C-alpha cells in the first residue's frame, strides 16, 4: 500500500497518459503492492540514492533499451515490454549503399537479375550475405561487422525505437559464448559511436529461462549457425553442448531440395559435376520463406511403424504427409506453382536437424543431431539437476517455430533414454555384459537401460518429497504443486528478449555491466578476471557507481 | 546499380578514423583511446595516400553516400555522414495523418499511431476505414466499420473484426484482440489489478480469508495456451515481483547472493541493517545454515498458468501441421516471413495477422559528433518541410557531374555528317577496351576560389581492371560569386557556351593532357580517359574467393596487354573490331552473367583534395576591417559510377 503513491509519482509521466494507452498499462499497472505490509520493494523510490529523483527524469530511471543480437536478426525494444519493437535482419538489402534502392525495384527488374539468381552457388556462400557474423573469425572482416552493427543500431533507433540513441542504458542479450574480438568490436562500436552510459550483457539462455518463469531449464536454442543446448540451473549455465545442425543447415538442405526440384523442372541433367549437384540455384529469400511457411517435422517413428511412439492418431501423420500442397515453383518463383507432397517438406528438416538416415558413428562431434545433443547435455548434468532440467525443456530460436520439432526432439530423447538409460557407455560388449548380468539376476528387472535412472529417480523423489513437504509446511503454501522432475516436458518461453526485458524491468542488475569510462580506458582488457568480486546490488544502498572493477563473467 | 549512370558517391572521411578499440590500442600505444578528435587533414592525407579506396570492398558500401546526403560541419571543416553525427528527436508524428504525438505519449503508444492509421498486414499498404453498407443497409454512416486495403483488397472482415465507430480504431482493436487472444488474458488482467486476487494471496503468509483462490485456477491449468504473450508477460512479471517481495523478507537468503542479488531481496533496509550485523559474504557459502534463519524463503519458479508458466500443449503442433496441410490453407494461407516480422511471434497463418498501426516517424536535429555543432535543425511542426539550420555538404564541396564526351572520329576525318552522328557512348553498355572520354565537371558553391587536386589509381581495383587517366589533375575553380559579376566580367560568354559542347565553330576540341577542358565562372571541366577493362567470363559455376583473386590478377594483366597495343590514342575505328586480346575471355564463357553482381559496373575511385583560403570567421569575429584569411583543406574519396561494361 505504501508504495502505491511512490510508484505513481515515479511513473507520473506514464500514468498521466494512461487513459488511452495500451502498453503502459501493461507495464505499470502491475506495480501492485503485496497485500502484507512490506518494506517498499520498489527500490527506485527509496533505496538507491542515485535515483531518488522520483520524477523519472534522471537518466537512470529511463527505461533501458534491450537489444538481442544474433547472427541473422537483431531484436530491439524497451524494458518492460513483452515483445520487441522490431526485429531487423542482416540481409544484403541492409548492406547496400545509401541511395541504392535496388531492393525496392525488385519487382520490375529485368531478366538479368533473375538470371543471376539462377546461377548455382556454393552453399557456403549462398547464405553468408545474410549473416552478420560467424563465430569463426578467421576470414571475417571485423570492420565490416562493426559497420553493419552501427548501421543496424542507427536505423533501429531512428525507425523503430524513436528515442535518442545513447541516452539510456543498453542491455545486450548475447549468446553466452562469443569470441573476444567480436565482443570487443561490438562494444567498441557502440561505445564509440554513441554515449551509452553503460552496457549490460545478459546471456540468452538464462534469459529464455527467466521468460519461461523457471529457474532451471534445458534451453534448446535452434539458432541460425548452430543449435546450442544449455543446462541452466538457478539461472546459471551448467553445461553447454552445441551442434552445427541449426537453421542454416536446414535452410541449406531446403535449398538443395528445391534446387533439385528446379533442375527436374528444367529437365537439366548435370550429372557430370557433383559440385553442381550440390550447389543451390534457388533464391535464398524464397527458400527461407518456404522454410518459414512449410517446414515441418514428423513425429518420431513415423517411418518405421513398428516403433510407434504411442501417437494419438498414428495414421494421421502419414495421411498428412501424403497430402499435396503447392508452393511457388523453385525455378520460376514468381510465375508458377508446383505441387508436391506435404511430407517431402518434412524431409529436409529431418535430414538437417535429426540426421535421419545417418548412423550415429558417421557423425562428427560437432554435427550431432538435435536429440543426441539434448541427451548428451542432460547426461553431462549432475543427476539432480538433470531431473530438474529434463522436465523443463525450452525451445527457443528460429527452429522452435517449426511445427513438430519439439515433439520430435522429446520423443527421440525419450527413445534414447529408454534404450540406453543415462549412461554414455555403448557397444556390443556392454550390451553383452548387461545381458549377462540380467541373466544372472533373478528378479525381473526391466531392460538394463531403464534400471539406471529409476533408482535415482525414486530416491530423489523421496528425498525431494521430504524436503518439499517440509518446505511447503514452512511456507504454508498449500496450493503449490509438487516439484515436477524426472520426466521430459516441454515448457514454452517468451524468448530471450522478453526474458531480458522482464529481468531488466525488475531492476535486477546483470553480472556484467560495463561502464563507459571503464571500457573506454582499457577495453575488454580492463575486465577483471576475478570472479569473486562482490556482486553489486542495484537495489541495495550500496550503489555500485563506485565499482572499481567489472567483470565479463561468463564471457570472460 | 540502381542509380542511373553516371552517378557519384562520396566516401565520408570518417572511414579513415576507425572505431577505436581501447584494448587493441593499448597494445600498440599507451595513449588514451577515447573518442579522439578528428585528426588534422594533413595526417589524413598521408594515410590515404598509402592505400587506395576500393569501392568494391564490402565495407565501402557503408561509407559511400550520395553527395546530397552528406552534411558539413563548419567547426571541424569536415564532411559529416550519418555515421559521424548524433541525432536528437525534435518531434514525433504519424506519416499518414501528420498528427504530432507528444513525447510523453510516444512510448505508451508503442511508437505507433494511436488514431486510425493502419497498414495492411498482407501488403503493408495503408488501410482505409470504410463502412459495411451491405450489413448496415439503411443507415449509411451508422454501419459497422472495417479497415480495408485498397491495394490487395484485404479487410478486417477476413479476420472477423468489425468496429462500432469509425474513430479511435486503435483502442477498439486492442480491446478486441485482447479478448480474442484469450479469455484468459482479461482474467489475468483482472487478477493482477485486484489486490485480493489469488495471485496475491496464494503466497502471502497469514491472512487472506476472503480469498476466492481456486475458482480461477483449474481452468487456467487446463487451458494455459490461451494466455496471450502480453498477458503471460504481465503474469510473469507479477509473479517475479511477488517472489522478490516474498523472499526479501529474509535479509540474506542463499539464492539472493547467487544471482546478482537482485532476484532476491529488494529489502534494502534490511540489507543495510545486516551490513553491520553479519557479513553478506559469509552468508554466501553455506554460512546461512548456521545462523538460525527462521525461514529461508526461496524464490520458486512459476507453477501455474496464471503465474506465466506455459506448457506446450501436446496437440498444438499437430493441429498446426494439420492446418498447414489442409486444402484451404496452402501457400497463401501461411504468412510470409516479412509479414510475420511485426506480428506476434505465434502468428503463423494469414488469419493470425492483425492490421498494424502506422509507425511514427521523427524529425531529428543533427549534431556533429565530435564538436556538437548543430548541423541540421528542422522546423518543429510535422507539416513543415523547412529547416532552420541545414549545413549540407554540397554547399561546401564541389558538385561533381560527369558525362561522356561524344565519341568522335579522329580529328583528321572531321566532317559535319560524322559530327552529327557522333554517338555518345551508351553508358549501360561500355565496350571493353575501347577508350572513352569523360567530362568531369566540378562546380564550386563556396564564395572562395578553390584549388583542386584529383588523383586516381591508374587501374581501378576489382576484378575488372580499367585504366583511368585524369588528363588534368590539378586545376582551380572560381568562386561562386554573384551571377551578375560574371555577366559583367566575362568577355564573351557566348564563346564559352559553345565551347562547352565540345566544338567551337568548325574545329573540334581535343582533350589535351595537362589542360583544362573547359572553365566557367565557378566550374571547371577536365577530361578523364577511361579504358574499360575486359570482363572475364566465368568458366565454372561456383564463385569462390580464390577464383576471384585469380581472375583479378588475370584481368589486370589482360588490361595491361590490351591497352599497350590497342590504346586509345590510335584507335580509329570504334564500333566493331574487338581489340587484340579480346578473344581470350570469350572461349571460356559458359554462363552469361558475371559472377559477382555489379562486377561489370565501372566505378572509378577519385581522390579529391581541395584547398582554399577562407575568412576565419569562427575564431575572430569581424574585429578588423579585413578578416584574417585561413588556409583550409578538405580531402575525400569520391566514386564515379561511369557505366556498365558490356560483356
UniProtKB/TrEMBL annotation, chain A:
Family stated for the protein in its record: Belongs to the actin family.
InterPro entries (alphabetical): Actin (IPR004000), ATPase_NBD (IPR043129)
Superkingdom assignment: Eukaryota
Species name: Penicilliopsis zonata CBS 506.65
Membrane-crossing residue ranges in chain numbering: none
Biased composition (Basic and acidic residues): 530-546
SMART domains noted in UniProt: ACTIN
Region (Disordered) location: 1-57, 440-468, 530-556
Highest classification ranks of the organism: Eukaryota, Fungi, Dikarya, Ascomycota, Pezizomycotina
Pfam (any one): Actin
Protein's recorded name: Actin-related protein RO7
Automatic annotation (TrEMBL), chain B:
InterPro entries to which the protein is assigned, alphabetical: DCTN4 (IPR008603)
Superkingdom of the source species: Eukaryota
Stretches with biased composition (Acidic residues): 42-52
Any one Gene Ontology cellular component term annotated for this protein: stress fiber
Basic and acidic residues compositional bias, start-end: 18-30, 541-563
Pfam families (UniProt xref): Dynactin_p62
Comp. bias (Polar residues): 174-183
Keywords: Acetylation, Coiled coil, Cytoplasm, Cytoskeleton, Isopeptide bond, Phosphoprotein, Ubl conjugation
Localization per record: Cytoplasm, Cytoskeleton, Microtubule organizing center, Centrosome; Cytoplasm, Cytoskeleton, Stress fiber; Cytoplasm, Myofibril
Spans annotated as Disordered: 12-58, 174-224, 541-597
Main location: cytoplasm
Assembly with partners or alone: Subunit of dynactin, a multiprotein complex part of a tripartite complex with dynein and a adapter, such as BICDL1, BICD2 or HOOK3. The dynactin complex is built around ACTR1A/ACTB filament and consists of an actin-related filament composed of a shoulder domain, a pointed end and a barbed end. Its length is defined by its flexible shoulder domain. The soulder is composed of 2 DCTN1 subunits, 4 DCTN2 and 2 DCTN3. The 4 DCNT2 (via N-terminus) bind the ACTR1A filament and act as molecular rulers to determine the length. The pointed end is important for binding dynein-dynactin cargo adapters.
Family that this chain belongs to: Belongs to the dynactin subunit 4 family.
Protein name (database record): Dynactin subunit 4
Organism: Penicilliopsis zonata CBS 506.65
Amino acid at each position: 500500500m505504501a508504495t502505491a503513491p511512490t510508484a505513481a509519482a515515479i511513473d507520473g509521466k506514464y500514468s498521466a497518459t494512461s487513459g488511452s494507452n495500451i502498453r503502459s498499462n501493461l507495464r505499470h499497472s502491475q506495480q501492485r503492492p503485496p497485500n502484507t505490509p512490506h518494506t517498499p520493494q520498489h527500490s527506485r523510490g527509496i533505496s538507491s540514492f542515485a535515483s531518488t529523483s522520483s520524477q523519472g527524469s534522471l537518466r537512470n530511471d529511463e527505461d533501458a533499451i534491450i537489444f538481442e543480437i544474433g547472427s541473422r536478426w537483431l531484436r530491439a525494444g524497451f524494458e518492460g515490454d513483452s515483445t520487441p519493437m522490431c526485429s531487423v535482419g542482416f540481409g544484403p538489402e541492409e548492406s547496400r549503399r545509401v541511395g541504392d534502392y535496388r531492393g525496392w525495384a525488385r519487382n520490375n527488374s529485368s531478366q538479368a537479375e533473375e538470371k543471376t539468381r539462377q546461377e548455382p552457388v556454393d552453399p557456403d556462400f549462398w547464405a553468408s550475405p545474410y549473416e552478420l557474423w560467424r563465430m569463426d573469425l578467421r576470414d571475417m572482416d571485423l570492420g565490416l561487422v562493426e559497420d553493419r552493427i552501427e548501421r543496424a543500431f542507427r536505423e533501429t533507433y531512428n525507425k523503430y525505437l524513436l528515442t535518442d540513441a545513447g541516452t539510456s542504458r543498453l542491455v545486450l542479450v548475447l549468446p553466452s559464448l562469443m569470441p573476444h574480438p567480436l565482443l570487443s568490436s561490438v562494444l567498441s562500436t557502440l561505445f564509440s559511436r554513441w554515449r551509452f552510459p553503460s552496457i549490460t550483457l545478459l546471456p540468452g539462455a538464462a534469459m529464455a529461462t527467466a521468460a519461461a518463469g523457471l529457474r532451471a531449464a534445458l534451453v534448446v536454442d535452434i539458432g541460425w549457425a548452430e543449435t546450442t543446448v544449455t543446462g541452466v540451473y538457478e539461472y546459471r549455465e551448467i553445461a553447454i553442448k552445441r551442434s552445427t545442425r541449426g537453421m542454416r543447415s536446414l535452410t541449406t538442405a531446403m535449398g538443395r531440395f528445391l534446387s533439385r526440384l528446379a533442375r527436374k523442372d528444367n529437365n537439366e541433367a548435370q550429372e557430370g559435376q557433383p559440385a553442381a549437384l550440390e550447389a543451390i540455384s534457388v533464391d535464398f529469400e524464397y527458400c527461407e520463406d518456404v522454410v518459414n511457411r512449410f517446414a515441418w517435422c514428423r513425429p518420431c517413428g513415423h517411418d518405421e511403424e513398428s516403433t510407434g511412439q504411442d501417437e494419438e492418431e498414428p495414421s494421421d501423420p502419414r495421411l498428412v504427409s501424403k497430402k499435396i500442397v503447392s508452393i511457388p515453383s523453385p525455378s520460376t518463383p514468381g510465375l508458377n506453382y508446383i505441387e508436391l507432397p506435404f511430407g517431402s517438406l518434412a524431409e529436409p528438416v529431418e535430414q538437417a536437424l535429426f540426421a535421419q538416415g545417418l548412423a550415429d558413428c558417421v557423425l562428427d562431434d560437432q554435427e550431432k543431431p538435435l536429440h543426441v545433443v539434448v541427451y548428451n547435455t542432460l547426461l553431462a548434468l549432475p543427476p539432480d539437476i538433470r531431473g530438474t532440467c529434463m522436465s523443463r525443456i525450452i525451445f527457443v530460436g528460429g527452429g522452435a517455430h517449426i511445427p513438430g520439432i519439439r515433439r520430435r526432439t522429446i520423443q527421440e530423447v525419450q527413445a534414447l533414454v529408454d534404450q540406453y538409460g543415462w549412461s554414455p557407455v555403448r557397444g556390443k560388449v556392454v550390451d553383452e555384459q548387461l545381458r549377462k548380468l540380467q541373466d544372472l539376476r533373478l528378479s525381473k528387472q526391466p531392460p538394463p537401460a531403464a534400471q539406471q535412472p529409476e533408482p535415482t529417480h525414486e530416491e530423489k523423489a523421496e528425498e525431494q518429497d521430504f524436503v518439499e513437504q517440509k518446505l511447503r509446511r514452512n511456507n504454508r503454501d498449500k496450493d503449490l504443486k509438487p516439484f515436477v522432475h524426472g520426466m521430459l516436458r516441454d515448457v514454452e518461453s517468451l524468448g530471450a528478449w522478453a526474458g531480458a526485458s522482464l529481468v531488466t524491468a525488475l531492476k535486477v542488475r546483470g553480472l556484467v555491466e560495463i561502464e563507459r569510462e571503464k571500457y573506454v580506458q582499457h577495453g575488454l582488457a580492463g575486465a577483471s578476471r576475478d570472479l569473486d568480486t562482490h556482486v553489486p546490488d542495484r537495489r541495495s544502498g550500496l550503489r555500485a557507481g563506485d565499482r572499481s572493477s567489472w567483470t565479463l563473467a561468463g564471457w570472460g | 546499380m540502381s542509380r542511373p549512370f553516371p552517378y557519384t558517391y562520396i566516401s565520408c572521411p570518417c572511414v579513415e578514423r576507425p572505431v577505436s578499440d581501447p584494448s587493441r590500442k593499448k597494445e600498440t600505444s599507451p595513449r588514451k583511446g577515447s573518442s579522439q578528435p578528428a585528426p588534422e587533414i594533413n595526417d589524413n592525407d598521408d594515410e590515404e595516400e598509402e592505400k587506395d579506396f576500393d569501392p568494391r570492398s564490402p565495407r565501402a558500401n557503408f561509407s559511400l553516400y550520395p553527395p546530397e546526403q552528406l552534411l558539413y560541419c563548419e567547426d571541424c571543416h569536415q564532411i559529416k555522414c550519418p555515421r559521424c553525427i548524433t541525432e536528437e528527436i525534435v518531434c514525433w508524428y504519424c506519416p499518414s495523418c501528420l498528427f504530432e504525438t507528444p513525447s510523453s505519449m510516444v512510448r505508451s503508444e508503442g511508437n505507433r499511431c494511436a488514431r486510425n492509421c493502419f497498414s495492411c498486414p498482407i501488403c503493408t499498404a495503408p488501410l482505409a476505414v470504410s463502412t459495411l453498407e451491405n450489413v448496415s443497409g439503411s443507415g449509411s454512416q451508422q454501419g459497422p466499420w472495417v479497415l480495408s486495403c485498397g491495394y490487395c483488397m484485404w479487410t478486417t472482415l477476413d479476420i472477423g473484426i468489425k468496429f462500432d465507430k469509425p474513430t479511435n480504431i486503435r483502442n477498439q482493436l486492442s480491446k478486441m484482440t485482447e479478448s480474442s487472444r484469450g479469455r484468459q488474458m482479461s482474467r489475468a488482467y483482472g487478477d493482477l489489478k485486484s489486490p485480493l486476487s489469488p495471485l496475491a494471496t496464494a503466497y502471502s503468509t497469514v491472512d487472506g480469508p476472503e480469498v476466492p483462490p481456486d475458482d480461477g485456477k483449474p481452468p487456467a491449468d487446463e487451458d494455459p495456451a490461451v494466455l496471450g504473450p502480453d498477458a503471460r508477460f504481465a503474469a510473469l512479471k507479477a509473479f517475479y515481483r511477488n517472489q522478490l517481495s516474498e523472499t526479501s523478507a529474509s535479509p540474506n537468503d542463499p539464492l539472493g547472493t547467487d544471482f546478482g542479488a537482485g532476484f532476491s531481496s529488494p529489502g534494502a533496509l534490511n540489507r543495510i541493517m545486516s551490513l553491520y550485523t553479519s557479513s553478506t559474504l559469509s552468508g554466501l557459502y553455506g554460512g546461512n545454515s548456521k545462523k538460525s534463519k527462521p525461514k529461508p524463503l526461496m524464490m520458486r519458479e512459476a507453477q501455474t498458468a496464471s503465474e506465466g508458466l506455459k506448457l506446450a500443449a501436446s496437440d498444438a503442433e499437430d493441429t498446426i501441421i494439420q492446418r498447414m496441410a489442409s486444402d484451404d490453407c496452402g501457400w497463401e494461407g501461411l504468412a510470409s516471413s516479412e509479414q510475420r516480422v511485426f506480428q506476434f511471434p505465434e502468428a503463423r497463418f494469414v488469419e493470425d495477422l492483425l492490421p498494424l498501426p502506422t509507425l511514427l516517424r521523427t524529425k531529428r536535429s543533427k549534431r556533429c559528433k565530435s564538436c556538437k555543432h548543430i548541423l541540421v535543425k528542422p522546423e518543429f511542426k510535422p507539416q513543415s518541410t523547412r529547416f532552420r539550420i541545414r549545413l549540407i555538404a554540397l554547399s561546401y564541396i564541389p558538385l561533381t557531374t560527369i558525362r561522356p564526351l561524344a565519341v568522335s572520329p579522329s580529328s583528321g576525318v572531321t566532317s559535319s555528317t560524322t559530327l552529327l552522328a557522333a554517338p555518345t557512348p551508351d553508358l549501360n553498355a561500355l565496350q571493353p577496351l575501347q577508350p572513352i572520354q569523360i567530362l568531369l565537371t566540378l562546380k564550386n558553391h563556396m564564395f572562395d576560389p578553390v584549388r583542386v587536386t584529383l588523383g586516381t589509381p591508374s587501374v581501378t581495383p576489382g576484378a575488372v581492371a580499367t585504366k583511368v587517366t585524369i588528363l588534368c589533375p590539378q586545376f582551380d575553380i572560381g568562386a561562386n560569386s554573384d551571377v551578375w559579376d560574371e555577366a559583367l566580367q566575362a568577355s564573351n560568354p557566348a564563346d564559352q557556351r559553345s565551347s562547352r559542347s565540345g566544338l567551337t565553330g568548325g574545329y573540334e576540341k581535343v582533350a589535351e593532357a595537362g589542360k583544362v577542358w573547359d572553365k566557367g565562372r565557378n566550374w571547371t571541366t577536365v577530361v578523364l580517359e577511361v579504358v574499360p577493362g575486359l570482363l572475364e567470363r566465368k568458366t565454372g559455376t561456383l564463385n569462390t574467393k580464390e577464383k576471384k583473386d585469380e581472375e583479378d590478377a588475370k584481368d589486370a594483366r589482360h588490361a595491361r596487354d590490351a591497352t599497350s597495343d590497342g590504346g586509345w590514342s590510335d584507335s580509329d575505328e570504334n564500333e566493331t573490331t574487338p581489340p587484340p586480346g579480346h578473344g581470350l575471355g570469350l572461349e571460356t564463357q559458359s554462363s552469361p552473367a558475371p559472377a559477382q553482381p555489379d562486377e561489370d559496373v565501372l566505378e572509378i575511385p577519385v581522390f579529391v583534395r581541395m584547398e582554399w583560403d577562407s575568412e576565419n570567421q569562427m575564431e575572430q569575429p569581424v574585429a578588423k576591417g579585413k578578416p584574417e584569411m585561413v588556409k583550409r583543406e578538405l580531402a575525400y574519396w569520391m566514386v564515379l559510377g561511369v557505366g556498365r561494361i558490356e560483356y
